[in-house]
Amino acid sequence: MSRLQANLLLLSAAALWGFGNLAQKTVLDHLDPLSAVAMRCLIGGLLILPLVAGERVTRKERDYWISLAKVALLFTAAVTVQQVSYFSASVTNASFLVNTYTVMTPLAAWLLMGERPARTVWYAAAATMAGALLLCGGLSGVGRGDATALLSAACYALWMVELGRHMQAHGNPFTAAAAQFLAVAILILPFGAAYGNLSPDSVTEAGRDLIILGVFSTALAFGFQTAAQRFTPASHAAVIVSATGVFGGLGAALFLGERISPIGVLGAATILGAILFLIWSAAPRPTALGTSEERP
Predict the structure, then answer these.
(1) Is the CA virtual torsion 256, 216, 74, 224 positive or negative?
(2) Which residue has the higher pLDDT, 145 or 231?
(3) pLDDT tens-digit profile of 267-291?
(4) Among 9, 109, 111, 211, which one has the highest count of C-beta atoms within 10 angstroms of its own C-beta?
């Protein structure tokens, strides 16, 4: 897979997450956050599980399982805290505030892995952050629940770094994806059953939202990301998937009646422009001999 193909796969994942954010909000009409996130990941994990048989886990030593456990635990924290944030944050605000991990990920990768980001990544990350602030109406527009979305962003930044490190060292994207999803179900479902409103009736009522979240926003979207991160750095991937906020804001305006101010539209356009710039910067360019090479 080329870098450009991996970037386009990440952009597809961002679209699935963005429009799936609507279901993250509406599913709370029927289920508590813990039950919702556990059921979503259970569906996604069961869908991915049959594909694991086609992969050969060649690295079964201790470091492989430790690496996989780190990825699964960080994913559990990130996706659970994000779902909780939708209790009081709007779809638009939550979508874009979670995307601040775009800025956090290059810093985490630099500190934890010594992966010095290219200048194009810093430019795109800065533009993305500025666009997110414009869309939210500045710091004064940050409301209740937004702090939880920011905490989720921090968890996602750490997860992106660990996932990239795991995939580049070990591969096997379906195994990694299934482990992440089923870890959430195993760890969180008991809490939903004990302290939430999990029941056959509530699951049935939330069925449409759970299918959207489990099939499209979990199995497909995170599967795309897991596969793509073997071929692109974590800091690069973080900027591209920040398109989630653009798609989430658009869906919220179209289907939930949330309105974006003119300055918010400018912010969304800024983010989308930064993402397209980053994708273009990684596209192969022709050389004098007619071959192609990746842009730095």
Answers:
(1) negative
(2) 231
(3) 778 877 877 777 677 555 554 444 4
(4) 109
Q: Which residues contact 93 (CB under 8 A, 6 or more apart)?
A: 136, 141, 142, 143, 145, 146, 149
The rounded distance, in Å, linking the Cα atoms of 56 and 202 is: 38
Alpha-carbon gap, residue 183 to 69, rounded angstroms: 9
**CB neighbour list of residue 115: distance below 8 Å, 6 or more residues apart:** 106, 109, 233, 234, 235
What DSSP element (H or E) covers 272? helix 262-281
Give yes or no for a contact between 184 and 75, defined as CB atoms under 8 angstroms apart. Answer: yes
Task: Look at strands 292-294 and 284-286 and give their pairing.
Answer: antiparallel
The reported pTM is 0.78
Q: Specify the 3-state DSSP secondary structure of 59.
A: coil
Query: What is the rounded CA–CA span in Å between residue 65 and residue 86?
Result: 32
Q: Which residue in this structure is represented by tokens 């991996």?
A: 6
Token pair 């022709």: residue: 286
